[in-house]
């Protein structure tokens, strides 16, 4: 579990399932993904997150809640990418927040805490992030986190002509993160 001034990043609870399903059905939240998620797809996603915590008990995609009222707003955390990309194996930082939590600094606040944990506690040397090249809000957050653009690439699970196929890869190294603190 991680805490910031306004957020708690914690293991997933049964009470997170319904609001996460709503996030997956929201076309705005899922705008930079190939499609919205069905309720079953959202449940399967949560199951996969929980299984990854079994592999790596001290890190993963944590559920995020407001400290003031314990309401679930999404996830922020670390995710292993062992073989999917030409830059694998790697550990990525990832986030997805409910629309009501956008543009208030929560993603930056949570992501900064996750990077601090990655470098200070886990002693990782590098963390990556990637998104569709058209996802300017996520790319702006990567830059704000002092991440450096490495390259553009085509996502291997999307057809080359798909609007979201072109992605950008960013990274941050432990020594660069210390400049953000």
Explain what you see.
The chain has 181 residues and is an alpha+beta fold. The chain has five helices and eight strands; from the N terminus they run E-E-H-H-E-E-E-H-E-H-E-E-H. It has helices at residues 17-25, 39-55, 106-121, 136-144, 174-177; strands at 2-3, 7-10, 61-66, 72-81, 90-97, 126-132, 148-154, 166-173. The strands form two sheets. Strands 1-2-3-4-5 form a five-stranded antiparallel sheet, with helices on both faces. A three-stranded antiparallel sheet has the order 6-8-7. It is globular and about 40 Å long.
Concise overview:
This protein has 181 residues and is an alpha+beta fold.
The stretches of 5 or more residues where confidence is low (pLDDT under 50) are none
* Structural class category: alpha+beta
Mean pLDDT: 94
> Roughly how many Å is the radius of gyration?
16 Å
* Cross-sheet strand order for the largest sheet: 1-2-3-4-5
Strand content: 25-35%
CA-to-CA gap between the ends?
Answer: 20 Å
Helix content: 25-40%
Largest sheet: 5 strands, antiparallel
Shape: globular
SSE succession: EEHHEEEHEHEEH
Number of helices: 5
Based on DSSP secondary structure assignment, what is the total number of beta strands?
A: 8
